[in-house]
Write a structure and sequence with these properties.
homodimer, 415 residues, alpha/beta, Molybdenum Cofactor Biosythetic Enzyme, Chain A, Alpha-Beta Plaits, Maf protein, six-stranded mixed sheet, 15 helices, Putative competence-damage inducible protein (chains A, B), MoaB/Mog_dom (chains A, B)
């Protein structure tokens, strides 16, 4: 199967957004062993879209469209494909119901143009949109399979994963299995990780090993092919074992794991609760934890102590400590962790104080960070970090460090 | 001039990176008033690249290539264009010198294939690469202008700005100015906004009006052309005026403004401070405000009151209120806002309580949200919302609503 991905949307041609949909779908199709030979971007214009489809029909037998399924006159992907394939557009009742329900629920008035979103190509397999209104669809006409997906990544990605990918796998009816697994690391740089497993990367053929760095983390994607799923997984297991023998201390999870998800998960398993005192992170640590459904079982809450007054009044850090050691100090971090644990009645109290930048603070340079961790049965520990990068990166990495500290404490069963 | 941007590189088709080069160039060309009608991505394969160029020649008179100018056998953009245009590739002496100098400077051995990088199309205008080795180039053959730029954004962007853009401006010989302006709206859906200004959109020609929705916001990009910059701006002003007469109550800013940036900015201007009690948002509101440098002047801090115990113990919501009205209630929101303002010593106290989902809470459905706002001189107000969407969207929109409420209060000068 040779694929072309056509993104429809003038905002892409104006440079307002990058075509991250093509990136996502390309990575997904690569995993399925489908060759992607072309990406095309075209604006909200019926003639030019028609031209682009005709070109794609000469060079691909799978054409995936993103965008142009919305309610406005500008949205014309379905209409153009229907005309080219000489198919009718028909109302999908389930989609219409869910659009009407959406408007009823939000108390907003449903304008007539919203009904257009429920139109689908007659005879197509309809993909429900669980994160928006416009459904997706797929159908094979002659030798070519057409798949239409919505433009917003938040709608497109889950729809493709849940409906588009299984549709293609059935279509492929493949006997060779492709198994892949992502190993996630924190606290080690990409070049150091690569150096430590250089010989493994050089010997790689099956599985292949592909490193990728981003957001202070490094991942390794292992991909194995075998006609037996069990054998493919065995190949992955062996390579994973060889890698973790070298760099296992930086490893924290697989695939879609995140430090935040794993922290919530392990807290639940160990039946422990957490509270946080956040200065430089401004609430980021708790925001990330509470973004995970079910976090309420383990997150008690916390204090965003952005000013010294709040550190003193709400978290009882003595004015003398703030005056002598300063807010960015080991002593302050220790007290914040201990006191937020007591205040919120949690098993674990964690604190973040430091300099996110752009300017130094209290004579301490940007990237100076203290993380305090206080547990019911142990002494409080303080970790001092010297981070670099812009404000956002420092804040994010600090919050992630907090998770890695909690994960290590919980795993070591010292709680 | 109608442009097509062709990115060459298999890493794009494997989904390893997004085509940010096309985004950058599209925004640049839009500023110059050059229409971009298509983007194409093709791999490091001579046959498919040739096909892509032949398609582009039928629909564009400016074709900009990014990537494929490096030293390896995979890099074949120049070679393919030379063959198609029947031009020779010749060594550019200045480029060769600078490549040799680079290797001498770094003490590395220059392999033979690096010389390939100094080859350029005979008769082309050569663009020096001040951030890498491979030069860029441009030439017009018949009615079509070809421009070749390197793939790494760090090399491509400065090269385009310094050499590519002036080359095009001279080519255009344009006296016409292009001015554009983005208007940002919150609290109104895309289809409702379009319905309210439908006639303006339909009449559009100069300026053009392009709507875009995302993250609970809608933007309108106005673009005007005129030989006088002042007149172009006047055209924008008139259209802006006509739009704001209709939907001004949802308007909050221009261009790169965000609700969070504008909230910090207006708080600074009015010399007011804010504190927040965050239940369903889990710290998101304060995280977003403190992401902005200088937020420490206006953000006092706050409490993430994720559990009823923290609401009761830290923010003094009486157990009776939590038992009768519940945590997700107008009364609770009111008390949280008042008490967090007092606790943190801020001018404005804001509170967020509600159901982010995925499950209902206290018999209240997902998306039920109360935002309390307490100011020094006024009664406390509570806004009740019924939002929809996934957990993340509800949290984000709730935090943004908080900003819009604060912005309105500050603008109304009732503080």
């Amino acid at each position: 199967m040779n694929a072309e991905i056509i993104a429809v949307g003038s905002e892409l041609l104006l440079g307002q957004i990058a075509n991250t949909n093509a990136q996502f779908l390309s990575a997904q199709l690569a995993e399925l062993g489908i060759n992607v030979y072309f990406h095309t971007v075209v604006g909200d214009n019926a003639d030019r879209l028609e031209k682009a489809v005709k070109v794609a029909q000469t060079r691909a037998n799978l054409i995936i469209f993103t965008g142009g399924l919305g309610p406005t006159k500008d949205d014309l992907t379905k209409e153009t494909i229907a005309r080219l394939l000489q198919r009718e557009l028909v109302i999908d009742k389930e989609a219409l119901h869910s659009i009407e329900a959406y408007f009823a629920r939000t108390g907003r008035t449903m304008t007539e143009n919203n009904k257009k979103q429920a139109l689908v190509l007659q005879g197509s397999t309809v993909f429900r949109n669980e994160h928006g209104m416009a459904p997706g669809m797929a159908m094979t006409v002659g030798a070519i399979t057409y798949m239409l997906l919505p433009g917003p990544p938040k709608e497109m990605q889950p729809m493709f994963s849940k409906y588009g990918r299984p549709f293609l796998m059935e279509k492929l009816d493949r006997h060779e299995r492709i198994e892949s697994r992502v190993l996630r690391f924190f606290g080690i740089g990409e070049s150091q990780l690569e150096t430590e497993i250089e010989d493994l990367i050089e010997q790689q053929s099956n599985p292949t090993i592909a490193p990728l760095a981003g957001d202070g983390e490094v991942t390794l994607r292992l991909t194995a092919k075998h006609h037996s799923e069990i054998e493919a997984k065995k190949l992955l297991d062996q390579t994973e074992q060889a890698i973790l023998t070298r760099v296992g201390r930086y490893f924290y999870g697989y695939n879609d794991d995140t430090l935040f998800k794993n922290t919530v998960k392990l807290l639940k398993e160990k039946k422990k609760t957490v509270a946080a005192a956040e200065s430089l992170t401004g609430g980021l640590f708790l925001t990330e934890l509470t973004a995970i459904p079910g976090a309420s079982q383990v997150v008690r809450g916390g204090v965003v102590c952005y000013t010294n007054e709040v550190k003193e009044k709400v978290l009882h850090v003595p004015a003398s400590v703030l005056a002598t050691d300063g807010a960015v100090s080991e002593r302050c971090a220790k007290l914040l962790a201990e006191n937020v644990r007591a205040l919120c009645g949690a098993d674990i109290g964690i604190s973040f104080t430091g300099v996110a930048g752009p300017d130094p603070l209290e004579g301490k340079s940007v990237g100076t960070v203290y993380i305090g961790i206080s547990t019911s049965e142990n002494e409080t520990a303080v970790h001092a970090l010297a981070l670099s990068g812009p404000r956002d990166a420092i804040r994010t990495r600090t919050a992630k460090y907090g998770c890695s500290i909690i994960l290590k404490k919980l795993a070591a069963a010292c709680l």
